[in-house]
Each structure stands twice: as C-alpha cells, then as structure tokens.
C-alpha cells in the first residue's frame, strides 16, 4: 500500500515539474476543442497512417532513424514542404485501391504523397462521381478511395500551412533591403514583407505607371518580389492548422490558420505578436539554433499566458502532451498483465510472497489507471465518463478497484485474479476504441451538462463495473466449485461475496437508472420514455432484482445464482453496447459500427462457459452428496 | 388469499415476464417505431403475440404492485434487521404508483412558435381535430371542435351551432394532395375541385405523416353541399357560406389552450467553434399572463415550469428569414414520485448494505 502512495505522490510531483514549453505544447483548435499540436499531429497521422507515431517503414531510408514522433514529423513537414515526399505515411491496405491507383503492392502498405497523387490523377473523375453519393450507396472500395483522397488533401494542406512564415524570398537590391530593414541577400518570409508592405509601396505604385523598359533597378526588384509573393500566395488553400487564437477572449470567435491571417484585413495586435514569435521559432528551427528555439518558445508561452490566458490554460496543454507521451493506460495494462502472471506463478511456488507482489502490481496498475482518468478530467474539465470510450476505461477501473477491495478482505488471490482479468480485457477493448481517432472529443448539446454527467453517467457506469465484477465472481465461484467441491467453507465465503457484490451493483444500477430518469425529466420532459438505452438499464436492474428474489425464495441455489450473475454480464453488455446497434432512440450518440460480431462472440462465450461450468459443478455436487 | 398474493414467487415470475416484454418492446422499436412499440408492449393491458393474448406492460406492473403491497403483510419483515428492506420496498411502491399516475394523467405535446410570434396552445403529438370556425362576427370567432375519436369513416357529425351536417367519407393517416387530371364533377368543392387526396404508406413516427380527411357537407340546401378535403398543413383555408354565416374548416393537431401565452423573442443555436456540432440551443421567451410579461430563458436541461406545465427545448426549424422553436410541453401529476421514491429506495438499500456488509465481506483470519 505504501508503495502506491509513494508512486502517486511521485506522479503528481512530475506533473508540477513540467519544463518550458515545447513545440508540441502549442495550442491549436481542431474539432471544437483547443488541443496541443502534439495531439493534433497524432490525430492527423492516425487518420492517414493508422498509427500515432512514425515507424521506420514511413521514414526516409538514408538517415538511420527508427522512430519519429508525430509532432516532429509535422514540424518537418511544415518547414520543408518541398521535401514532403520523404515520408511514406499513406497506409493503403485495400488491394483493389492499390491496384486502381497503379501502385506496387508492398508488404508495409505505405506510400508517399507523389505515388498516391500520380495514381489519384487518373481517378479524379471517378472520385468526383462518388463524392456526391450518400453513405449507403458507397461500396467498401468507394469508401477507401474517398479516404485516400481525403488524406492526400489533408496532407497537402498540412505541408503548405506555414509557407507564409518560411524565409523564401531573397532581397537582392540594396535600397529595397534597406527599406525592409534587412541585409541584402537575406531571405525573408511572405509575412515579413506583407507586414512591411508600406515600406515598398512607393516603388510599387511607380511600377504600375511605367512601361517595363523604363523600370529602375529598385522597381525591377519590387516586381520580382511581388511575383514571388504571388507564387507563394497560391498556398493559401492550406488552412487546416488553426493555430492563432481570436484576438478577444470570446468563446464563439474562431481560431485562424497563418494563411487565413494573411488574407484577413483585421490582424489583432496580440495575434500579430504571436504569429511573429511563431515565425521566429520556425526560422530558428531552420537554422538549427537551439538556444533561439528555446527563447522563442518561452516568449510564445509568455504571450499565451499574458494575452490569451482567459482562453486557454498552458498547463493543461502541457498536461495533455505529457499524457500523450507517458501512455499511462499502457503502463497500467502492463502492471495488470504482470500481476496476472505473478498470480499464476504463485499457484506453483511461493504462494504467499508472490500473491503479495501480484497484489502490489495490481494496485500499481490501478494507480496509473486512475491517474490517467484524473488527468483526462483535468484536461477536458468534465467528469470522467461522457463517451463510450471513456465508459470502457472507467468501467474497467471500477471493476479492478472492486476486485482490489475483495483481495484486501480475502487475501487469497481471488481478488487479484478478478481484478487483473477485468483490467486486461477492458483495457484491450479500450485500445480498440482509441484507434478510431481523438478520444477527447466534444459533446453534443444535450450531454453538455457537467452536473448530470457527474451524477447519472458516473453512477450508471459504476453500476456496469460492479455488475461485471459480480459476474466475474460468478465465474470464480463455479470454477472453485469444480476445483474443490468438498471445501464448503471456502465456497460459502465466495457465495456471500457474490451476494454482497450483487447488492452493491444493484445499488448503483438502480440509483443510476433513476438519476437518468430524473435527467430525462429535466431535459426531455418525461421520466421514462421506453427508449432502448433506458430499457437496457432497466433490464439490468430487473435481472439483478430477479436474481436476489430467486435466491431469497430458494428458487436458485448458490450455483444457480452464480450462473445468473454470469448471464447478467450479457444483459450488461447488451445494454452498454448493444442498444447502439439498434440505431433508434435518443441515446444513439455512441459509436456503433463493427461491434455486433464482438458482442455475439462475447454472448456465446458467456453462455457456453457459464452453462458448461454450471452443469459440471452441479454434477460434482450431486456426486459428492451421493 | 393473502398468502397467495404476497408470495414472492409471483414477483419472480412477473418480473421475468416484464423483462421479456421490455426486451421485445425494445427490439420491436427498430421496425415499428417507438410510439407503436410503446403502445403495443408497455402501455397495454393485453399484448397479442401471434394469435395469443398475453399480459401487457400495464397489467404486469399492476400485478407487481399488488404483490408488492401484500409484501407488507409478512410478519417476519417487521424487525430492525430488515428495516432497510422494508424502506426499499416502500420506495418501490411509490415508484410504481408514480409511474401509474404518469401513465394515466400526464399529457404532452408541442408548442411551436416563430420568432416574434406567440402561442397559447399545445398541440398533441398524435391526435388530430376538426375545427369549424364561425367567422361571421367581426369581434369574435365561435369554434366547434370535433376530436379524432369522432372522425371515423362513415360517421355523421352535427352540432347545435352548425346549420349543416358533415359526414366523414375517408380518414387518412397519411396522405398526399395530388392534382386531378379530369374534372370530377360538381359534387367536389373547394380545393377538391382540382386536387384529390391519395393514401400514402403510414410512417413509423407520427410527425412524418400528413393526416387528411374527406368530408361530405349536407343540409345547407344550397350548392354549398358537397365533398370537401382537408389535410394537415393546408395552406389555402377551406371556407363555406351558409345562410350568410361564414365558416372556416380546419384540420389540425389537437389543441389544448392555456391560460397564458408564450412569445418567442429569440432562438439561439451555438456551435462548438469551428464545427457543425451544436453546443447548445436556447429560446428567449416572454411569458405573458393577464397582460403581464415576464422574460424567461428555456434551454437544454433547463426547462420553464409554469401553471402545471413544463416547457422544454425540444427542437427547432430554420427558415430563410426567421427561426422557429419547438417546445415540448408536459403536464404530469406524478413527476415528484420518482424523486421521492429514489431517495427512499437509496436510503433503504444503503441501510441494508451497512447492516449486511460485515457478514458478506468478512476478513479471513489466517
């Protein structure tokens, strides 16, 4: 126990110890939320490359780098747009798509921009054709084609987002250089010239009133610069990185990308300061000037804090970046796995010592798990559960914590077993959901209520978690009844644990369901509307009430009760995920596709294993009686 | 008798049946829509499955309630150790009673208001009505209203205030006005001279249907006698003149008039910046009662309660020039029951858990 307290303390200290701002901490606005560039670049990469960082297959072969973070890739991309073919980030696995784009079939499935673009050019009319169709009319091939097409556009936009800040225009004329206050021969950016355009206004005007042979050297230079600016200005389609906050801290104002700023007539004073600092950072990066990079980022942070402090919290941005890098859920998964392995070993030798270590490992996992959920709450400023993904990681935590309490009271490894199994399976499910994109999304209007999210949603998910935990105890009871049917006292203790867990689960599911009704009464005008999700919750409650009454009236014996709890797991899963498959009702904001098969497998496994162990154990019991 | 009624095995059987109903009623929503499934499985006394009658949701709930009431005749429960259980079951009774009150007495409907306009009536979600309005007098209109149950095919409609008779020729649950190709003859009047109502397949959700009605008017003794067609959302009013009295016929959603009115000042939809995803909807309204106005804000999760009614932000329509808000208006006598019963049930369950806890999670002494 002490070990964990120290660990948590250490973790919270490390949060305080964030250093200065990194490039990845810079805020950007995407999908309704302010997030660090680190998260932004991961999301972008995930949608093209299907991973959150680049592995060696995507990187240029000449330099021996094995791995690259998404944010470093983004920085490379925006500072060297002409070199963007170096990255093979288009993950195309559909053989039909690969064929029709004229690409060679690769084991790694990754291609670069040039390869995809030359293939797409022959398909452009087909793509235009399917773009007008509705979702149902599209074949799998069409969807994949559109995905590739969307990604190539996304990639192009990213690459050219910052060209207005890159030093691309050299100033060759002494006078013009003096007017723009730069050295002759130095390269400056589109933005630098645009904001000093008044300085060269005179020769620019003169230019228009004269024929070309009469131009002075100065005017000739201006003409050359303007032509260059026009060329660079072609990139102004690239507006996907909304990095500049609105001038005034108004919630409804929009964030702008550098190119949108170039085009906008009203550049705020604070916005300009921020953009200039960003430009300085980019140039320091290009010159490989480490100390200048640190200084400019520190300036950037200062401006954010002093001028845009009402709009965003730099600390939260850093927290989110830190969270992205530490991958706390993977760490907790590792500890759950470790605890399961140690527990298995404890059945072979050193039972007491290994059990204790495995328990400590489980608790360590819980520590990481809970801390990660806590950080997500801090970053999003909302209660732990508001999306299906969050419900998975939260239910998993509740299951493991319940199991840890059981272990604390029993001290025989059963709690560790239940906890590690619950943690491992649900983490695995959670990772699956995380791969669908940003797990920190914004909420639709009806959910936008922290009070009800904190009460109803949290309570009902605790109910799911404790119900699944009770179901797991049902499994354990049946297994014990098969392993040692003669050990009556042991079975009796597990039996009362099962009963207690069911009472607990009922408390949370019942209370959570009623709270849900009250929320519905407050927002939709009726306490109960027989909506699928409501009915799902009601089914769990009724199943549990039924099991308790069957037990009290003697309709079922402990073995049957255990089976009932196992089957309750099916009810929970149907209420939790299954109702989203119906795609009717008011609660259909969850994610639905592709889970039908998984639910079917889960039900089959539970039915077969539940009934199988039940009849086996019952046979043994009858034999023992005889 | 009491011994049979209080038998907890009745409860086990009924709750199993209730679970079957809930499951079936949920799955059925995919095919028949929420309202129809609710009527068939939950709000019914008897549910017909295939050709056999089974207890419907309402009957099952009544059986559970009765069984639960007789639970208190058990002598063995009146002990301190069982206090939590008793409290829990009292809460359960209250929840069921509240549900019953809501099922029987609550009414709900829509109030639809354009920006700048006001409304003083609630429209039913499902039922229609036929209103005959005598607009002869300059100062007032006199209304004669026939509710949907009266609007059955072949039914004759007459009233003291009306100098003519009406007969329902056809009631359409969903119809479409279609322009006629040929002249139907002198018997068809008003819009039906040029149009005919064509029956359409009935949609699952009632708000997607356009109900209509074909009426025969007789007894005026003039050429006004004839066949008239009305449907929901008819833009041209159908009016007739009988003995110098002017009547307007309107086929509309059933209205309940309120003793106050609500004016929509402004409807607002706020998006999450940079997306098309709504962050909030709200209606700024003026609640007018006895000529005195009060400004109120209705938004998601924050309804307006007044005069026994609760108004919720339910939906909206965006026109070219102005927005329209759709408020759900609910009157429910049972609405406090879930609040009270849930508190009672939680106290009971917690109490019981506290008593039982030490037994159920005993520390193993090793």
Subunit organisation of the chains: heterodimer
What percent of the residues of chain A sit in helical stretches (DSSP H or I)?
55-70%
Calculate the terminal CA-CA distance of chain B, rounded to whole Å.
51 Å
Largest interface: A-B, 70 and 68 residues
The chain-level mean pLDDT of chain A equals 87
Proportion of beta-strand residues of chain B = 35-45%
What does this structure look like?
The complex is a heterodimer of chains A (626) and B (366). Chain A is mainly alpha-helical and 626 residues long. Chain A folds into four domains: 23-159, no CATH class; 166-310, no CATH class; 327-442; 450-626, no CATH class. Chain A is built from 24 helices and eight strands. In chain A, strands 1-2 form a two-stranded antiparallel ribbon. The longest helix of chain A is centred in the C-terminal third of the chain and has 36 residues, at 488-523. With 366 residues, chain B is of the alpha+beta class. Chain B folds into three domains: 2-106 and 337-360, no CATH class; 109-119 and 257-331, no CATH class; 125-254, no CATH class. Chain B is built from six helices and 18 strands. In chain B, the strands form four sheets. In chain B, strands 3, 4, 5, 12, 13, 14, 15, 16, 17 and 18 form a ten-stranded antiparallel β-sheet that branches. The mean pLDDT of chain B is 85. The chains are: A mainly alpha (626), B alpha+beta (366). At the A-B interface, α18, α21 and α22 of A face α2, α3, α5, β14 and β17 of B.
């Amino acid at each position: 126990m002490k070990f964990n307290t120290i660990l948590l303390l250490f973790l919270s200290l490390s949060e305080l110890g964030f250093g200065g701002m990194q490039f990845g901490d810079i805020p950007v606005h995407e999908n309704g939320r302010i997030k660090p560039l680190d998260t932004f670049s991961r999301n972008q990469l995930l949608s093209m490359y299907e991973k959150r960082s680049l592995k060696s297959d995507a990187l240029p072969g000449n330099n021996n780098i094995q791995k690259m973070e998404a944010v470093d890739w983004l920085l490379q991309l925006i500072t060297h747009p002409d070199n963007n073919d170096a990255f093979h980030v288009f993950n195309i696995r559909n053989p039909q798509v690969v064929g029709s784009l004229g690409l060679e079939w690769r084991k790694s499935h990754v291609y670069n921009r040039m390869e995809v673009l030359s293939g797409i050019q022959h398909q452009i009319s087909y793509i235009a054709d399917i773009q007008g169709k509705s979702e149902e009319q599209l074949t799998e091939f069409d969807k994949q084609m559109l995905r590739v097409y969307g990604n190539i556009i996304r990639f192009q936009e990213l690459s050219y987002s910052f060209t207005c800040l890159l030093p691309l225009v050299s100033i060759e004329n002494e006078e013009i250089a003096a007017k723009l206050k730069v050295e002759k021969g130095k390269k400056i950016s589109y933005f630098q010239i645009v904001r000093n355009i008044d300085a060269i206004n005179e020769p620019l005007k003169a230019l228009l009133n004269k024929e070309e042979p009469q131009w002075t050297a100065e005017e000739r230079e201006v003409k050359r610069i303007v032509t260059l600016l026009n060329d660079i200005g072609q990139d102004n389609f690239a507006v996907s990185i909304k990095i500049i906050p609105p001038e005034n801290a108004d919630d409804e104002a929009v964030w702008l990308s550098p190119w949108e700023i170039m085009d906008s007539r009203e550049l705020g004073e604070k916005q300009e300061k921020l953009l200039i600092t960003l430009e300085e950072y980019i140039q320091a990066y290009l010159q490989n000037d480490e100390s200048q990079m640190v200084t400019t980022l520190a300036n950037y942070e200062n401006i954010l804090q002093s001028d845009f402090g009402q709009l965003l919290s730099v600390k939260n941005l850093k927290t989110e970046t830190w969270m992205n890098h530490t991958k706390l859920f993977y760490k907790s998964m590792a500890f759950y796995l470790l605890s399961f392995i140690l527990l298995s070993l404890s059945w072979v030798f050193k039972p007491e010592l290994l059990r204790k270590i495995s328990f400590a490992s489980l608790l360590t996992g819980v520590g990481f798990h809970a801390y990660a959920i806590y950080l997500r709450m801090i970053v999003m400023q909302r209660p732990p559960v508001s999306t299906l993904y969050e419900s998975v990681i939260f239910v998993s935590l509740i299951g493991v914590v319940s199991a840890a309490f059981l272990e604390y009271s029993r001290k025989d490894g059963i709690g560790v077993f239940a906890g590690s199994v619950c943690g491992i399976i649900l983490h695995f499910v959670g990772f699956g959901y995380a791969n669908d994109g940003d797990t920190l999304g914004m909420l639709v209007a009806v959910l936008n209520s922290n009070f009800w999210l904190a009460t109803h949603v949290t309570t009902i998910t605790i109910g799911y978690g404790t119900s699944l935990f009770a179901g797991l105890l049902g499994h354990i009871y049946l297994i014990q009844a098969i392993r040692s049917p003669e050990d009556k006292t042991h079975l009796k203790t597990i039996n009362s644990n099962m009963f207690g867990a069911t009472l607990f689960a009922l408390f949370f599911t019942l209370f959570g369901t009623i709270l849900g009704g009250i929320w519905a009464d407050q927002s939709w005008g009726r306490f109960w509307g027989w909506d699928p999700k409501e009915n799902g919750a009601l089914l769990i409650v009724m199943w549990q009430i039924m099991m308790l009454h069957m037990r009290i009236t003697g309709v079922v014996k402990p073995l049957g009760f255990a089976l009932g709890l196992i089957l309750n797991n099916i009810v929970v899963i149907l209420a939790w995920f299954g109702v989203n498959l119906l795609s009717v009702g008011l609660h259909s904001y969850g994610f639905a596709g592709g889970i039908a098969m998984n639910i079917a497998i889960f039900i089959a496994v539970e039915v077969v294993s539940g009934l199988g162990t039940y009849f086996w154990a019952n046979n043994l019991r009858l034999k023992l009686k005889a | 008798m009491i011994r049979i009624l209080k038998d907890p095995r009745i409860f086990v059987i009924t709750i199993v049946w209730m679970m079957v109903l809930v499951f079936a009623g949920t799955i059925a929503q995919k095919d028949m829509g929420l309202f129809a499934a609710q009527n068939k499985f939950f709000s019914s006394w008897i549910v017909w499955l295939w050709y056999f009658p089974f207890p419907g949701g309402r009957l099952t709930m009544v059986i559970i309630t009765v069984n639960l009431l007789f639970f208190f005749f058990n002598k063995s429960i009146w002990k301190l150790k069982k206090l939590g259980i008793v409290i829990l079951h009292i809460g359960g009774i209250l929840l069921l009673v509240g549900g019953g009150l809501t099922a029987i007495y609550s009414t709900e409907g829509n109030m639809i208001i354009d920006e700048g306009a006001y409304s003083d009536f609630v429209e039913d979600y499902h039922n229609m009505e036929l209103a005959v309005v005598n607009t002869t007098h300059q100062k007032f209109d006199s209304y004669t209203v026939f509710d949907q149950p009266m609007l059955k095919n072949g039914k004759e409609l007459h009233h003291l205030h009306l100098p003519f008779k009406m007969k329902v020729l056809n009631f359409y649950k969903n119809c479409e006005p279609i322009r006629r190709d040929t002249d139907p003859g002198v018997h068809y009047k008003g819009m039906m001279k040029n149009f005919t109502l064509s029956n359409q397949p009935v949609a699952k959700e009632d708000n997607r249907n356009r109900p209509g009605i074909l009426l025969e008017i007789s007894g005026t003794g003039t050429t006004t006698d004839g066949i008239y067609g009305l449907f929901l959302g008819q833009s041209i009013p159908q009016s007739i003149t009988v003995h110098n009295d002017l009547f307007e016929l309107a086929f509309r959603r059933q209205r309940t008039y309120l003793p106050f009115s609500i004016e929509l000042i402004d409807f607002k939809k706020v998006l999450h910046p940079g997306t098309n995803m709504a962050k909030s909807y709200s209606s700024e309204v003026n609640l007018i009662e006895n000529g005195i106005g009060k400004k109120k804000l209705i938004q998601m999760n924050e309804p307006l309660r007044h005069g026994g009614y609760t108004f919720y932000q339910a939906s909206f329509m965006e026109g070219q020039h102005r927005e329209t808000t759709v408020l759900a208006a609910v009157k429910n006598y049972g609405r406090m029951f879930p609040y009270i019963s849930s508190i009672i049930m939680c106290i009971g369950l917690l109490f019981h858990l506290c008593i039982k806890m030490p037994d159920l999670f005993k520390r193993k002494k090793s």
